[in-house]
Automatic annotation (TrEMBL):
Gene field: Alp1
Keywords for the protein's UniProt record, in alphabetical order: Hydrolase, Metal-binding, Nuclease, Nucleus
InterPro entries: HARBI1-like (IPR045249), HARBI1_dom (IPR027806)
Protein name: ALP1 protein
Keyword Nucleus: yes
Species assigned in the record: Upupa epops
Length: 141
């Protein structure tokens, strides 16, 4: 992209735009084709992440009820589940789709209102614009 970038997290419209949180452009009739393409790609990437976390929670259902372990143990427990999950996925260990059924009711509600504009970082728009240019240069996908 011509400029070194830090890692970023992907967020949705409810998050404030920060130089470390990418969020889509606000959907309206004034979006350019390039901005629409950016939003599309961001949503695709976000859905891959959500699916990965859903599979992680389904395979390691202890993550759904971490309220019965100490806070000091929690980071180690989550890390262990992530490592074991990645090993299972890398070795094509069968994933039982029925496991997904038990993850649905525990989904936590998400905020539905966009973050206030005052919380947004004015420099972050440069990062989003660079990503937008990068996605445009990659072509369809």
């Amino acid at each position: 992209m011509g400029k070194a970038q830090k890692y970023v997290l992907l967020g949705d419209a409810t998050y404030p735009l920060q130089d470390w949180i990418l969020k889509p452009y606000q959907e309206d009739e004034n979006l350019t084709q390039r901005q629409l393409q950016f939003n599309y790609r961001l949503k695709r990437a976000h859905s891959v992440i959500e699916n990965a976390f859903l599979r992680l929670k389904a395979r390691w259902q202890i993550l759904l009820k971490c309220d019965d372990c100490s806070l000091e143990l929690l980071p180690t427990l989550v890390l262990a589940c992530c490592i074991l999950h990645n090993i299972c996925e890398a070795h094509d260990n069968p994933f039982n789709e029925e496991w997904l059924e038990s993850t649905e009711p525990t989904e936590l509600p998400k905020p539905c209102q966009p973050a206030p504009a005052a919380m947004e970082d004015s420099q972050a728009e440069q990062v989003r614009e660079l990503m937008c240019q990068y996605f445009e240069s990659c072509g369809e996908g």
